[in-house]
Amino acid sequence: MKFSEVTINDLKDYAKVDHDVEDKLFNNILEGAKSHIRAYTGLTDEKLDTLPDTTIALYVIANEMYENRTGTSIDNKASKFNELLDRILGSHSVNLL
Q: Are 30 and 11 in contact (CB under 8 A)?
């Protein structure tokens, strides 16, 4: 599936959510996750559509946004960006110069 074709139903399936109660939230998560990936990489949807791993990154980021809705860490460890996502998105980034 291409980056631009992901829907809230795709995200709900990935998160194993089988109700429509939070569709507005999932819509915001979808737009926020896509926006984050665009800003992080500096790539257009057309370019992101050619990179299949960015769709996986979209699912993971969206699921993280759904599962972890707090801004603080529960434990005392320093927060750290997911290394897999950092590698996926960093490998396509054009705006970190």
A: yes
Name residues whose C-beta falls within 8 Å of residue 91's C-beta, 6 or more positions apart in sequence: none
Question: What is the structure's pLDDT at 40?
Answer: 87
- CA separation, residue 23 to residues 8, 10, 17, 39 (Å): 7, 12, 10, 24
Tell me the whole-structure pTM to 2 decimals: 0.78
Band (74; pLDDT cuts 50, 70, 90): very low
DSSP letter for each residue of the chain? --GGG--HHHHHHHTT---STTHHHHHHHHHHHHHHHHHHH---HHHHTT-HHHHHHHHHHHHHHHH---SS-SSSSPP---HHHHHHHHTT-SS--
pLDDT at 1: 92
Q: Please give the structure tokens belonging to residue 81.
A: 């960006």
